[in-house]
Design brief:
The complex is a heterodimer of chains A (798) and B (63). With 798 residues, chain A is an alpha+beta fold. In chain A, 43% of the residues lie in helices and 16% in strands. Chain A is built from 26 helices and 28 strands. Chain B is elongated, with a radius of gyration of 16 Å. The longest helix of chain B is centred in the first third of the chain and has 25 residues. Classes of the chains: A alpha+beta (798), B mainly alpha (63).
Chain lengths: 798, 63
Amino acid sequence: MSENNCYHCGDTCGQTGIKFDDKEFCCNGCKTVYEIFASNDLCNFYDIQSAAGATPKIVEGKYNFLDNLSIVDKLIEFNDGDVQVVNLYIPHIHCSSCIWVLENLNKLNSSVNTAQVDFPKKTVRITYKCDDFSLKELVLLLSRIGYEPYISLNDYDKENNSIDRSLIYKLGVAGFAFGNVMFLSFPDYFDLSTSESTGGEFWLNQYQNVFRWLMFTFSLPVVFYAGNDYFISAFKGLRSKILNIDVPIALGVSVLFIRSTLEIIFDWGSGFFDSLTGLVFFLLLGKFFQQKTYSFLSFERDYKSYFPIAVTRITKNGKEENTQVNDIKKGNRLLIRNEELIPVDGILINGKARIDYSFVTGESEPVEKNSGDKIFAGGKQLDGAIEMEVLKSVSQSYLTQLWSNTVFQKDKTSNFQTLTDSIGKRFTIVVLTIAFVATTFWLFYDSSKAMNVFTAVLIIACPCAIALAAPFTLGNMLRIFGRKKFYLKNTQTIEKLAQIDTAIFDKTGTITTSKKSTATYEGMPLSIEEEALLKNTLRASNHPLSRSLYNLLAEQNILSLDEYEEYLGKGVEGRLDGEHIKAGSAEFVGDKSLNDTLNTAVHVSSNDNYKGKYVFHNEYRAGTTEVFEKLSEKMQIAILSGDNEGEKKRLEDLLPKLTPLYFNQKPESKLQFIKSLQNQHKKVLMVGDGLNDAGALAQAEVGIAISENVNVFSPACDGILDASMFQQLPKLIKLSQKGIQIIKWSFVLSLIYNVVGLYFAITGQLQPVIAAILMPLSSISVVLFTTIMTNLIGKELD
Amino acid sequence: MSAIYILLAISIVVALVFFAAFIYAVRKGQYDDSYTPSVRMLFEDEVVKAPSQKIKTEIKKSN
């Protein structure tokens, strides 16, 4: 860490740094946090991880809604009058220092009993005494030390969602039974060909019934609890006339169980309880492996995750009150403070609005609005407080009504036939045919063995290895993708991604970066003196466009201006030695004829003569051209932008020829566009980023959200791709296709085992020990094969 | 040879004890977050609660 970095947050201090206690701080906020920590014996925070802090941003009155008890009641998990428990999401949690300081919160305030961090989920569960402390004070305390919790409308509407741990229980039950049954089968393994009549170990024969009935007992919970999902799924499949992979599995499990039980009842043999429990255990292991979740990401977010719980309403007699967002009605007047989100559509009444719509469109440049203008829900106010009058309620606003589309209610996973299921269908038919043919043969040849053969075929053909191939391949791919910052919702997404033949891209925020750092000058050339004056005028301005333009202009001597004036929302004006320059909006500069609103531009005039304008361009992500060229070789591509046509020419130069470009697309029309492609039997990949793409992302076969910071924002989607990995997109698609190839090869591998097993089964010589060897052997070799192969192809990404 | 009954009973009881411990651990949410405890245990005696990671490994052995 260099000397000039903030001791608390690690940012560069520059010249405005503050020295305190021999340490440098970038701002007063960071210094204050340090003081709080230092005076409460919490400096360990800086020892665990240096510069881990965040600058506290406290907005006055932001949490006033927490005074409202009915809102608080919805947020807290537990309340007995004395003690309350709350689970807060804190996006800043990122290192061990964070865990440490949050779990030592009781040192800062003695009303806090305990605090426990869940690092992967970035949440902290806090128990506190509420007699002289409240949720509001707790939230303010956290905000003061830079750990501001994120409270959204989603928290308010959530139902008590208990965590589903059934798979772990089932896995535990199956594993427990499998181990013990294996152990109890040992006497039989060692004592294969002997029985009381032929000699052999006397005591093993004597007690074999005890062993067998114990095994039977252990297998009961495996069949009826751990394996019940397979029966349910097979039943559901059959009812809707689909032969999924669970049909032969359920058949195998039930035949195994019934035959084994009959065997021990009538003392025919020892049964196949070891294979039975092992089978279920391996299958569940596959399911467990497939279930990789990124708990710090959410793929189900809708607008509710971004909207505040409450806003400030101004009553008729001019008072402010906190109102739950869903209670806002048409005609209400709302006060939107600095940094607050606009929850509904309305008309700006009072104040100067500078609204950041990056949540909605991905466009980072704030939009200026004057009173009387219409403002839309989803924007974030950046400059001071504004007052607005509500035109529509939350659920009916321009943006939010998108979520009433049926596409958000549909479960995408249910109507997709996986590769395994399509194999399972043919497999079941073949196995049943073989079983019946073999049984018929034995009925005529040696009818005593017919039943034995029939069950043996169904047992040995139980497609354990086939059912494991996909979960392990795709589960492993999911992890490899995750390491490369490509986070997928589930393994099905990989299968769908492999089938894609059309790719649709959003423009702003998706193929462009959030920075605007290139500009071209159009108009009469500026003289050297004029350019120097312009640069010096811009130097004093803090407007983002001024800063960008300042950095773009050539280095100039620093002059001190005679006169400088900044007009908020209009532009800047500078005067030196009688020369006079203006930079800003077209109107401000005095050129009313040119009403070019297509592009973001800074207009310049010198001595009241219009000179020209700097047109800012979106910067396209590195490798955009290559990505599109590679993709267009294999699939159709198109751009679907919510913006105007201002960038059309640059896009045409950048992208392969004849790439269709669509502009001015509304959120709803993006969705319809995808739908119409799907009606032509296209498999569509949608790549987007903002809430306005949410409908298209949900409608498309695969919706991928591009995100510059995966922790911050992404609408509901199937996958989140870190913006830095955008160039790798064609490779990722190719890789998922290779993953499908691997699954197909492992199907072949497991079919070979099945053929070997079927030989034993059809000839009527299937011994329990053969089944007990074949089943794990085939499963383990398939798992090994897929793991090695996926890791091999995963290397291509490096 | 009826010692076999006692031995079997003991082995099953031991296995069941570990199984119960596993169920208890899952129910208490010890498997919900498998990362944070690994960091927490490295802090110097400030944090009183140190969730045991031991049970997990022992359960696996018993199977």
